Amino acid sequence: MERKVGVNNVKIAVVGGGLVGALNACFFAKRGFQVELYESREDIRRATVVKGRSINLALSHRGREALKAVGMEDKIVSKGIPMHARMIHSPSGKRSPIPYGKKGQYILSVDRANLNKELLSAAETYPSAKMNFEHKLVDWNLESGSMTFLRNDGSTKVTTCDLTVGCDGAFSAVRKRFMRQSRFNYSQTYIPHGYMELTIPPKHGDFAMEPNFLHIWPRNTFMMIALPNLDMTFTCTLFMPFEDFEKITTGDEVLEFFQRYFPDSIPLFGEEALKQDYFRLPAQAMVSVKCSPYHIGTACVLMGDAAHAVVPFYGQGMNAGFEDCIVFDELLDQYNCDFSICLPEFTRLRVPDDHAIADLAMYNYIEMRAHVNSKWFLFQKQLYMILHYMMPNTIIPLYTMVTFTRTRYHEIVKRWQWQNKVINRGLFLCGVSSVLGGTYLLIKHPPCTPSIKLDQLWNWA
Q: Which uninterrupted H or E stretch holds 392?
């Protein structure tokens, strides 16, 4: 069945009012679709307590391009803090910066809640968009397109739509309907590490550390990171195996642990504040979700975490979700809003890319907590930057491709593997050439030995 935007009576239900859902509402309403957004929680803009994840977000090129397409980039960027490099904190307290890319390239630390509020407000400015909060999806009939939502007061709302867009997160209610479909592939993986958020307050009315960096305390099997906020605090996130979290049960054990592994951070937190903050909430789990296809006929499509939840170690979860929105919008342009073409094409394009970034996110956790301590890793980083400077179109660092371009994720992985092979072979050949050259010179020009007679040696003795 074709769905075209020649008329304005095409109704789209966006399920989920988080970041990707709110941005999608902007994209669809901008085209003139009749958009209804349904969110199970209360309106975050009016909530006294904001529930859910609060890990700071790293906004980069892919996300900015999507925001630019709906006229929101400048507003969001003005409320972010540029981070030009990683700042590595060694156990001794030494700090070493590792730039993200070339001069002028940076990522932005943005506040999740504020970004969500801004996107909801932007969607609400379109006359064809309507927000429905405290509406939980409890039933969806694929054949008729009818959806049943449960309100907080116990009443229900039944509605129909032409297209359902599932943006309701890693534990998507929309995706559950996909699970009943034949040949739908799905997997989820909980990593053995959890995360806990802590706060570094301002010092003397200013940031306690350099603000334009993503601070990292890598400790091989675990790590802590800190991102700056506009209120001059830092949101710190401790990533660690759950079994290690469970070993720490008292305030004194917290201080002992931090004194051993993050000694330079204790004065920044304050001892008493650290002990209280640590036990404020238990460590939270992290899940990676993969599925395919992302669509059912012309009735429904999944985007964001509902389609591809990733662990947060590449800073690409939100950016990949925002890229879903702009890719679908580009497909609507390309195929004249024909859903029968756009939905399967969206699956074809995004599944390999989203699976690739999920794998890269897992890899980057190892890099962040362990590899950045390695001299070989730092040498490779420097070598990549030198080669990129000399051959900017041939050798491109992995992080640059992921963060500062819109090159497709799965193509990045292929190119990265090829570059590594070429560089490693080059280093091997250089090493072999050096050994052979040195050997040849030793044979051709042996070191001169002084002609000293045995009786002279005897006399010296």
A: none
What residues pair up with 193 in beta bridges, in sequence order?
Answer: 241
The per-residue pLDDT for 44 is 93
Residues 292, 274 contacting (CB under 8 angstroms): no
Residue pLDDT, tens place only, 22-33:
999 999 999 999
Q: What is the CA radius of gyration of the chain?
A: 27
Tell me how crowded residue 171 is: count the other CB atoms within 10 A of its CB: 13
Which residues face 140 on adjacent strands?
147
How far is it, in rounded angstroms, from Cα 221 to Cα 142?
A: 45
Contact yes or no for 150/53 (Cβ under 8 A): no
Strands 295-296 and 34-39: unpaired
Question: Which DSSP state fits 250?
Answer: S
Q: Note whether 337 and 389 are within 8 A (CB).
A: no
Question: 200 in helix, strand or coil?
Answer: strand
Positions of the chain with pLDDT lower than 50, given as ranges: 1-5, 7, 457, 460
DSSP annotation string for 107-175: EEEE-HHHHHHHHHHHHHTSTTEEEEESEEEEEE-TTT-EEEEEETTS-EEEEE-SEEEE---TT-HHH
| Alpha carbon 440 to its chain's center | 51
Q: What is the DSSP letter of 372?
A: G
What does the block give as tokens for 448?
């001169």
Q: What does the pLDDT read at residue 282?
A: 94
Asked if 3 and 339 count as a contact pair (C-beta separation under 8 A), the reply is: yes
For residues 2 and 283, give the distance between their C-alpha atoms in angstroms, rounded to a whole number.
47
Residue 2 · residue 163 · CB < 8 Å: no
Question: Which tokens in the block code for residue 280?
Answer: 């404020």
- CA geometry: angle 332, 122, 328, nearest 5 deg: 15
Measure the CA–CA gap between 229 and 192, rounded to whole angstroms. 28
Residue positions counted in the chain: 461
* pLDDT value of residue 126: 96
> Residue ranges of the alpha helices (H) in 112-184?
112-124, 173-178
One-letter amino acid at 7 equals: V
Say how far residue 248 (Cα) sits from the centre of its chain: 28
In this structure, the strands spanning 163-166 and 11-15 are parallel
Contact 112, 19 (CB under 8 A): yes
